[in-house]
Amino acid sequence: MEFFLFSSINTFLTDPLTHDFMRKALFMSSLVAAVCGFLSSYLTLKGWALMGDAVSHSVMPGVVVAYALGLPFSLGAFIFGVGSVALIGFVKQKSRVKEDTVIGLVFTGFFALGIVLVSKIKSNIDLHSILFGSPLGISLSDVKQTVLISLLVVILLSVFRKDLMLYCFDPRHAKTVGINVHFLHYLLLTCLSLAAVVGLQTVGIILVVAMLITPGATAYLLTDQFDNMTIISVLSAIISSLIGIYCSFWFDLETGGSIVLAQTFIFLFAFLFAPRYGIFKFKKLFAGYKR
Amino acid sequence: MEKLHYQNYRIYAENICVDYNGKVALYDANLRLKPGQICGLVGMNGAGKTTFFNALTGFVNISKGKIRINGESLRSAQKDQTIAYVPQSEGIDSQFPVNVWDVVMMGRYGSMNVLRCPRESDVQAVKDAIERVDLTDFLSTPIGNLSGGQRKRTFLARAIAQRASILLLDEPFTGVDIRTEKLISELFIQFKNEGKTILLSTHDMIHVREVCDLVLLINKTVVAYGETSEVFTPENITSTFGGISPDVLFGPES
């Protein structure tokens, strides 16, 4: 009986690995999850969740235009991602409309433009795979591109890790000690657009925002130390994508949805049981028990 | 010749104006502070106190006027970490996942390499600063678990670790316990003896009398400026606070 249980767990874990597309999907999703998870801790602390939503939706027309022109789709996505943020800033400054309204207005506009373009430009773009991702059908050139972009983002975030933390915490102090705050602002935006681009493939435009928000929020509930927060955020993102992909393989579920759902469940767990900030404060319970 | 004139002053602000999208927040403001002077910045909410700080830290651009720090431009003052800013309690996210050590270490960032790796001297500066504000027992306490006074002292330690010669403090006495209040007052005297220049904003009129050599009364522009004993008169205060008499503000004996 014990042997049977062990071997079936073994089969559960190793069987998918015999398929080439599954190995690729597992690798890609973990990579993307790690990148988005890393960035996520900054976005949560900076209060940029809505900005993540905006940028990830706004890259849509960029992807379509790039495909139509035969350019790397990451380039198009990047231009539109940064463009949308610039536009949001411009409209906010020049009108009396409030920021959250402007964000909602601009990104839905961009998103709609993307959808219209897809229907108008004759190409082999699959609207479904842009919207919901297709980690099981990634081409080799896409893998290369994703790995390159991911490495770039991870290097940028690692080098400017502490400056970005200070920028999120107290930008005015950063400014007074001679740190270039504008540079950090655009660095974070650039990383956000790039992360949206790589996330788009695994979970799609609609759900990539979850990859950018949920891991950071989960980690925020679990620690009071910034470095730990980053680590927890990355780990929870990777674990979620593994769980998601395995579940989608065995139970025939939509992959992107499964990954995000796994993240949501991990958040829920932290929300309920986090030692200090959970609903049931376990630390207190144990402290009482010891006495 | 002209430059020499600025160099006599730590802070030299001449006719500075700040506007946000066409709305004037501060106009024709002047301020000259020398080493070892403590100046109180007093005004109503929305009178331009925070704007004044923003201008001096370079957080907003001035639309007119001139700011010189030790005779140099604001940019070079930032490069030399000449100015330290101690935010008011509401100005920071107290739930941010950093501890006392992390925050004080931020005071050293400007003089570190690009990866912000602390050197031996940075570690020592941080230790000394934390000791001066009496928080040695709280090194690894997250700032969210500190009291208002302890948090204020943490940010004061950051300014000390920065080794700035100018300190800008936004409401240093608001929301702190008596112990912290006493410690801050003592530190001010030490700073003064070290030749540091301090500009602090406050709502509390009693503190102005106690700690400030000079007072700058503002209401979108400078209402009065000078020695505390001369400038801090009922008439001046009344006009600063838009016609409200000082009796209402801090008791009839004033």
From TrEMBL, chain B:
CDD domains per UniProt: ABC_Metallic_Cations
Sorted alphabetically, which keywords does the UniProt record give? ATP-binding, Nucleotide-binding, Transport
SUPFAM superfamilies in the record: P-loop containing nucleoside triphosphate hydrolases
Residue ranges annotated for the ABC transporter domain, each copy included: 11-245
Any one Gene Ontology molecular-function term assigned to this protein's record = ATP hydrolysis activity
Pfam families the UniProt entry points to: ABC_tran
* Superkingdom, natural source: Bacteria
Q: What PANTHER family does the entry give?
A: IRON TRANSPORT SYSTEM ATP-BINDING PROTEIN HI_0361-RELATED (PTHR42734:SF5), METAL TRANSPORT SYSTEM ATP-BINDING PROTEIN TM_0124-RELATED (PTHR42734)
Q: Which family does it belong to?
A: Belongs to the ABC transporter superfamily.
Protein name, per record: ABC transporter
